[in-house]
Write a structure and sequence with these properties.
Blueprint (H helix, E strand, L loop, with lengths): L3 H4 L1 H28 E4 L2 E4 L2 H8 L4 E4 L2 E4 L1 H10 L2 E5 L5 E5 L11 H8 L8 E9 L2 E9 L12 H49 L12 H55 L5 H33 L7 E4 H13 L8 E6 L7 E4 L1 H17 L6 E9 L3 E8 L6 H4 L22 H11 L3 E7 L3 E9 L7
Parallel strand pairs: 10-12
Antiparallel strand pairs: 1-2, 3-4, 5-6, 5-8, 7-8, 9-11, 12-13, 13-15, 14-15
Length: about 475
């Protein structure tokens, strides 16, 4: 709410008018006190205060048997305001003085008293003259004020003021028309800006939007439009890249499914036609059919598994397992596979981790780690060494590293390794992979509450690092 006036044009106009009115009032009050006020001990007073004080001073004067007396309060007021007093009899002779400067005379003629009534500020004082009458006697008295106060009365020609009335009305009408014109111009400008915003929204939907300069009254709106356009363009690019990867993956899967179907169909037709009668040939053809059928089944199962993991429909049954023993047996099983009997595969673990347990689904976790080890063997030269290492992380997790000193992976390929529509290109030979192995591995690790990262440089090898929560208690 505090920034609402910044985005609402009408509130901005109202705020501007209020500020102008307040500034005018403050300026008027300041001008009034600057021109028509003087300082005195109790604060600021209007400039007619000396004349009123002089006229009221007679209240503190009294006649006692023909002798003029000044009350104490009157003298205190003179001291309080820094004033001086001189009292004259009817002949103009001084009969009493209080604080009078030495340069003022003791006797005044009638003409001099008249001149003092209109005299300006001189010698540090403005002198005001008044009289006190009682019991048939009159005393004149002078009070000097240390202020430069004018004594002029302004007169004006009433007829001239009447003639100015139509001019004043014309001025008010002119100002009203000017204000209306300004509001009309502002309305056209506002309509133009809102039209620009409306067109911008339409262009965003048509993907033809161009960035608007983020300035002016509608800067916040332009910023939002520009940000929305950037996000939509990024979303379009991401969708396009995802769709392209999906199409490529479907093309690969289709091709890979056709690949085993061709020999299955061909050898099946030979067997069904009865042209092959030798038992050795029959067994050979049958083994080819079984091998390709297994490959096709693997592709289908991988596809099914990745969508089950994504939707959460795959049964997940974690249980406490001694992790080091479990991983060592997994690596031994892979090393004993005839396909990898000539390869260098090893296992390492830090001391003191034998009893360390983790809650895992043994079937799924075997699929994830086994996939990483087999990938390292398949996608690297035969002389490559593959090491599975286990170490305890002081942050409260176990780290499982699958390392190799093979060909490595480029940064571009690393960015898409865990994409389920991605198939690596760092091998010269076509592999019988579905392109889902690493995506499935990441889904399984995430399902176990862990994370997986890859660190690799071309020519220096690759490390797949898994971080997994663990239970320090021994397994039952």
């Amino acid at each position: 709410m505090k920034n609402k006036w910044k985005t609402n044009p009408l509130l901005r106009i109202l705020m501007l008018l209020v500020i102008l009115a307040a500034a005018g009032i403050v300026s008027g009050i300041g001008l009034l006190y600057c021109v028509f006020a003087i300082p005195e001990p109790e604060g600021l007073s209007l400039a007619d205060w000396p004349n009123r004080f002089t006229d009221n001073f007679k209240l503190w004067m009294e006649d006692e048997d023909g002798t003029l007396q000044i009350k104490t309060i009157g003298l205190e007021r003179l001291d309080e305001y820094g004033l001086w007093l001189q009292v004259l009899n009817e002949d103009g002779q001084e009969i009493f003085a209080y604080g009078k400067p030495e340069n003022y005379p003791d006797h005044y003629r009638a003409s001099e008293l008249l001149r003092l009534g209109t005299s300006p500020y001189e010698d540090g004082y403005t002198v005001f003259v008044n009289s006190f009458e009682t019991s048939g006697q009159t005393w004149n008295y002078l009070i000097g004020f240390p202020y430069a106060v004018g004594k002029y009365v302004l007169y004006y020609n009433g007829a001239a003021v009447s003639r100015l009335s139509p001019l004043l009305r014309m001025m008010i009408a002119g100002l009203s028309f000017a204000a209306a014109g300004l509001f009309l111009i502002y309305g056209f400008w506002l309509t133009r800006q809102t039209g620009k915003i409306t067109k911008g929204i339409g262009k965003i939907s048509m993907r033809t939007y161009h960035q608007l300069p983020e300035k002016g009254l509608f800067r916040g709106v332009y910023e939002a439009l520009n940000q929305m356009d950037q996000e939509i363009r990024y979303s379009d690019q991401l969708k396009e890249a995802t769709d392209r990867a999906r199409r490529e993956w479907i093309t690969n899967i289709t091709h890979d499914l056709k690949t085993p179907l061709s020999p299955i169909r061909g050898y099946g037709e030979l067997l069904a036609g009865g042209t092959v009668t030798e038992a050795l040939a029959v067994r050979e053809y049958g083994s080819v059919i079984v091998k390709n059928a297994d490959y096709a089944e693997t592709l289908i199962n991988d596809l099914k598994l990745t969508y089950q993991l994504e939707s959460g429909s795959f049964p997940f049954h974690p249980e406490p397992v001694r992790l080091v023993r479990y991983l060592k047996e997994l690596v031994i099983d892979i090393a004993n596979d005839p396909a990898f009997s000539e390869r260098t595969i090893s296992f390492e673990s830090e001391a003191g981790l034998a009893e360390l347990t983790a809650a895992i689904d043994t079937g799924l976790f075997r699929r994830a780690v086994g996939n990483l080890v087999i990938n390292a063997l398949v996608h690297n030269p035969p002389e490559t060494e593959v090491i599975t290492a286990v170490a305890y992380d002081q942050e409260g997790s176990i780290r499982i590293d699958v390392c190799d000193n093979g060909t490595g992976i480029s940064k571009e390929e690393q960015a898409g390794l865990f994409n389920r529509y991605y198939r690596g290109t760092n091998t010269k030979e076509k592999t019988e992979g579905s392109g889902l192995g690493l995506a499935i591995a990441k889904q399984i690790i995430t399902l176990h509450g862990g994370s997986i990262d890859v660190f690799s440089k071309p020519g220096e090898g690759t490390v797949f690092s898994i971080r997994l929560p663990v239970n320090k208690d021994a397994a039952n």
